[in-house]
Amino acid sequence: MAARYVLSIDQGTTSTRAMIFDQHGRLAGMGQREHRQIFPQPGWVEHDAAEIWHNTRHVIPEALADLGISVADVAAVGVANQRETFVLWERTTGRPVCPAIVWQDTRTRSVADHLLDDPGADFFRQRAGIPPASYFTAVRLSWLMDSRPELRERAHRGDLLLGTMETWLIWNLTGGPDGGIHVTDVTNASRTLLMNLESLHWDSELLEFFDVPRAILPKIVPSSTIVGTATGSLAGVPVAAAVGDQQSALFGQTCFEAGEVKCTYGTGAFLLMNTGDEIVTSTHGMLPTVAYQLADGTKAYALEGSIAVAGGLVQWVRDGLGLIRSAPEIETLARTVDDSGGCVVVPAFTGLFSPYWSSGARGVISGLTSFVTAGHLARAVLESCAWQTNDVVEAMAADAGVPLKSLRADGGMTANHLMMQMVADVLDVSVVRPTMSETVSLGAAYLAGLAVGYWSDIKVLRRNWHRAGQWDPQMSPQVRESQRAAWRSAVGRTLGDGSVAAG
Amino acid sequence: MPGRVQSVERAAAILRLLAAGHGRVLGDLSGALGLSKSTVHGILRTLVEVGFVEQDPASGAYLLAAEVLGDRSKPMDINEMRSRATNWVDGLAARTRLAARLVVLPETEPTEITSGLTAHHVFSASPAPQRVEIGDEVDLAATAEGKMLLALSPIGGQVLDSLLRAERSAKSGDRLRDDVTLTRSRGYAVDTGGSGTDGAGVAVPVRSHGGTVVASLGVRGSTEQVLTPARSARKDVLRTLDEAARGTSHALMSKRW
Predict the structure, then answer these.
(1) Buried b (16+ CB within 10 A) or exposed e, A223-236
(2) How confident is the model at residue B193 (pLDDT cuts 50, 70, 90)?
(3) pLDDT of residue B257
């Protein structure tokens, strides 16, 4: 009998999950386990790669048992992962020789700032498409090998292997020291600052610049292709996809056409726009990246914009201010009033990301009067998520030269009905939400299923996308423009540029 | 007739002790009642699970929960309910390809309630234009979700009586009473459209701690999609609906994240 399901592993920042999907892209079973967040010093964030592999080995049988199926029912396995986090391990034993240094880790912030001056952002942009920043792998890898020279020496000797998390898991899934396959996919490689964005190969000049020996590098493969066969609890199942989490969500939302955009609302928010087979270079603070590459070589690029604080602002209202007991109650509080009473919140807690990229920006609450109540503040908090989305969307549209037609939203915050309406109102386009909100896991499942022929082509996947809700714009242009002016003025204050708008 | 239930008596004694003080630790309670720590711990664990008692994470002391201290226990916030239920209601719509709706009674005096409130709504798979109905009022007498709440919600009987008092036609009043009785006996509710609603609907109860019905979960589509020719719920639809309602119940009862 033909295998009936595809299994997807989502190796995320806080947990590792195994999810099983059926032919209709519906979630059928899952297992989940959290791992420790290790903070050795302020600004340092580490994971234990061995713990993550241990958890992965547990959640797979958990998901199979949840659904009550055997490994013979699984047609393929795909991996989606937190991006840019990396680990080095011994080729012969599989033992990690360093902690996994996480994308959130800012220990190399000053190194990255220095690289902006010398050799300058363009040196990196022309090759990798992205500027140097502490969360791209190469900057932290180079710091690690500088601070522990024995690792650089062992790397040059060929003792060690490098991997982002999908590379680490696939190597272990396919046998580890006993014949494990050492690969990364184009989307993950595009976030290392070591891959040439046009050729999709490791870039010699960047490798030389960061002094990264080729011997430790995984082979770059398409996001959807059979790379090997799993051992252990998935013995015999083809390992058929690897993809970075945000790109996976874009694929899971079936944004296959140029111009299609998804936004995932979590603690922060990530917008990706499919730009087709062309790299769109940004002059508005967006990052060009690879969206996916299929087994036949078909590839798509994307523009990415990120918002540092979205749901995180609601958590602050709950934990920092104590105005609500649970995050969803922000909507109840916000509905006690009809508008924000002139109050604007810009949550630049650790600077502003796209499109401003100002690490020195600090948050602002503007328009405070004695009229403003907790309800007005709650409303301003939700509006800030909408206006931050709009800032990124406008910058993307300017770079891509096409206006946004609609926005596909996912993530926990899409349960907030009021905020979804605000996003539609502010963007002046429809916002739609799919019934399958686990788009990260679904994307990797789709890519794996395509590689083994479980799904015949991407047209079939489009038919699986089922609209759960749609919000159409209802705001008058006058209200939108006056809110826009207030938002711009408040953002100006966070940047400290003194541009205080009149009125 | 059975006698008094010992564990309930013991639970009451624990609650009385907690009401008197500012938090007591396990050993303290066990000493005061002359019961073993394991017995007291078992009762406390149940009281924590049903939300009557909270444990201070720092000191380990047990306290009465805010819910039992108030005049009336506060129902779950409607937006929190949607957030917790969304994966199950989404899944229900995806599996059945029907529109799905989670409906509650508004937080007011039973005699003032004239309609239900939509806590969550998910579109059907149809490409036809649809509007998000979250926050909309729901006709209690004409929809499956509404009849379910009249039949099984703790205040459903009072709401039904006040609706019947306002009902001018004795005939339609009798029909509603029969409908609610039938709903209570078979455990699910059915409507066949009318009064501004299209098609047909089926709804089942969503329960919280102790089996209390806190919401109703329903699907709606064309008559053939949800009902048999005899006008009872289709078995496959009912099975998926029951599974989603159990999952929703579980999600509503789990600890705050």
Answers:
(1) bbbebbbbbbbbee
(2) confident
(3) 40
DSSP character at residue A118: I
> Does residue B113 or residue B66 have the better pLDDT?
B113
| pLDDT grade for B25, boundaries at 50, 70 and 90 | confident
**Residue A325 forms contact with B (CB below 8 Å):** yes
H-helix or E-strand spanning residue B28 = helix B26-33
Write out the two tokens for B224: 């053939």
For A335-353, give one letter per residue: b (16+ CB within 10 A) or e.
bebeebbebbbbbbeebbb
Taking residue B41's Cβ as centre, other Cβ atoms within 10 Å add up to 15
Q: What is the pLDDT of residue A42?
A: 85
CATH code linked to domain A83-221: 3.30.420.40
CA distance from start to end of chain A: 71
Q: Given an 8 Å threshold on Cβ–Cβ distance, is B132 in contact with A435?
A: no
The complex scores an ipTM of: 0.82
Determine the pLDDT at residue B2: 63
Which pLDDT score, from 0 to 100, does residue B225 have? 93
- Domains present along chain B, CATH in parentheses: 6-69 (1.10.10.10), 78-253 (3.30.450.40)
The tally of CA atoms less than 13 A away on the side-chain side of residue A5 is: 22
Residue A501: pLDDT above 70?
no
Contacts with A328 from chain B: Cβ below 8 Å: 77, 79-80, 82-84
Which residues in chain B have their CB less than 8 angstroms from residue A471's CB? Answer: 132
Name which of B90, B118, B130, B255 to mutate to probe chain A: the one with the most chain A Cβ atoms within 10 A of its Cβ: B90
Which range has the worst mean pLDDT, A201-210, A346-355, A403-412? A346-355
- Peptide bond before residue A119 is cis, with ω within 30 degrees of 0: yes
Instruction: Please name the residue of chain B whose CA is at the shortest distance from the CA of residue A437.
Output: B87
Could you tell me which of A121, A136, A143, A132 has the C-alpha nearest to residue A192?
A136
Antiparallel, parallel or unpaired: β A224-229 and A238-244: antiparallel
Q: Which residues of B touch A412 (CB under 8 A)?
A: 83
Q: What's the per-residue H, E or C state across A162-213?
A: EEEHHHHHHHHHCCCCCCCCCEEEHHHHCCCCCECCCCCCECHHHHHHHCCC
- Residue B133 to residue A468: CA distance in whole angstroms: 12
Residue of B nearest to A471 (CA): B132
| Residues A221/A242, Cβ–Cβ less than 8 Å | yes
Neighbouring CB atoms inside 10 A of A321's CB total 12
How confident is the model at residue A498, as a pLDDT? 46
A390-449 pLDDT, tens digit each: 999 999 999 988 889 899 999 889 999 999 999 999 999 999 999 988 899 999 999 999
* A145-191 confidence digits (pLDDT tens): 999 999 999 999 999 999 999 999 999 999 999 999 999 999 999 99
User: What is the CB-side half-sphere exposure of residue A371 using CA atoms within 13 A?
Assistant: 9
Does position A2 have pLDDT exceeding 70, yes or no? no
Residue numbers in B near A415 (CB within 8 A): 79, 82-83, 86
Question: Which of A425, A435, A441, A467 would best serve as a mutation to test chain B binding (most B beta carbons within 10 A)?
Answer: A435
A471 touches chain B (CB under 8 A): yes
Domain extents in chain A: 83-221
pLDDT one-digit tens code per residue, A92-146: 999 999 999 999 888 998 898 899 999 999 999 999 999 998 889 999 999 999 9
Measure CB to CB from residue B91 to each of A27, A331, A471 and give the nearest one: A27
Q: How far is A83 from chain B (nearest CA, A)?
A: 25
Query: Nearest residue on chain B to A28, judged by CA atoms?
Result: B91
